[in-house]
Amino acid sequence: MGLEQALKLTYKGEPLGRSLDDFGGLRISNDALRNRGELARRMAGDGYLFLKNFLNKDEVRAARQEVMNRLMGAGVLDKRYPAIDGIAASKRDIDGRATGSFMPLLARSNPPLDKVIHEGPIMAFFEFFLGGPARYFDYTWFRAKRPGLNTATTPHCDIVYMGRGTKDLYTAWIPYGDVPYHMGGLMLLENSHTLRDLKAGYGSTDVDLYCENQGDAKAIVKRARAEGRNLTDEERANVNWNSSGAYSSDAIATRKELGGRWLVSEYEMGDLLLFSMYTLHASSDNHSNQYRISSDTRYQRTSEPADERWIGNDPPAHGIRAKRGMVC
After folding, report:
1. CB hemisphere CA count around 124 (13 angstroms)
2. Lowest CB count within 10 Å: 47, 67, 109, 302, which one?
């Protein structure tokens, strides 16, 4: 389908753009796969690399089957259809079940998924692109986007979640199945990685830093750490955080404020989208009847420092072990 289909994209029920001038297509970089210098130039210039049909489709399909089997077992898929189709059960049938769109548990103890993200083409690519041995974060971010108008991903840059190590770090977004426009795939804000104010302001924050000199924040965090537990919602509300994570809650307003177009595509099984830590991205609403499943994984040179929140058999993630106090 042509880019005109992007005019049907919505964010929380509202049209994402009013004309084709509001959208652009992702540039495909398969032609540069053997040219490391050109790949680097495109990443620096565009803030991303889009590789079509790059991954082994059989391996991606096997990972999809495993995830959909788990979702079927969780009771959130329609049992009248094969699990691999990912057809969502009715809301009435899943009320009370775990249906959040961010589901990292789907990536744990998942050999078919590990084969896609930790072996083969993707590791060979990063070792070529980075010019030496590459490593991945042990933690895998996995999303299962249910149909509806309340699961679109808010605009954000990844640096605020994982900026304690090297900044020469890259996100790999992989769809586990075809994602036509109406299913709400990932979209990147054009040239956002070049915006100096964005980098210096929002892009310099860390979601796990808190103002320890304000209120009872230091005592709250100290108590939770001593008890070996994460903060409760009430405790979090009484702490002034360095960042909420999202740049904003409105992708439509974000584009108007920062400029540029939303760069979009219809994705196919086997596609791979890579982008920098400062490339602002989001997703649109899922208007299909299927779960849209995808993973986010991060890669860097082995020789460079890694953010300790995402490394090891039991990464701290955004739990109590990751919190750091600062004077505000």
Report:
1. 10
2. 109
Cα(253)–Cα(114) distance, integer angstroms: 37
Token output for 258: 């920062």
**Alpha helix positions (H), the chain:** 36-46, 57-73, 91-94, 111-118, 120-130, 196-200, 217-226, 233-237, 251-258
> Six-digit token pair at 18?
């009013």
The predicted structure's pLDDT at residue 102: 84
* Neighbour-count burial of 108, counting CB atoms closer than 10 A to its CB (0-12 exposed, 13-18 middle, 19+ buried): exposed
Tokens (6 digits) for 267: 């994705």
The label of the residue with tokens 């920098």 reads 276
pTM passes above 0.85: yes
Count of helices and strands (H, E) across the chain: 9, 14
Contact between 42 and 57 under an 8 Å Cβ cutoff? The reply is: no
Angle at 187 between CA 60 and CA 266, to 5 degrees: 55
Q: With left for phi above 0 and alpha for psi between -120 and 50, is residue 114 left, alpha or beta?
A: alpha
CB 278 within 8 A of CB 198: yes
Helical packing angle, 111-118 and 57-73, nearest 10°? 140
Report yes or no: 46 and 28 within 8 Å, Cβ to Cβ. Answer: no
Residue 2: per-residue pLDDT: 80
* Domain chopping of the chain, boundaries: 23-200+263-317
The DSSP secondary-structure symbol of 292 reads E
Tokens of 30: 């398969």
CATH 2.60.120.620 applies to domain 23-200+263-317: yes
Model pLDDT for residues 54-89, shown as the tens digit of each residue: 999 999 999 999 999 999 999 999 999 999 999 999
Q: Which of 87, 64, 73 is nearest to 291 (CA)?
A: 87
Percent of the chain with pLDDT over 70: 97
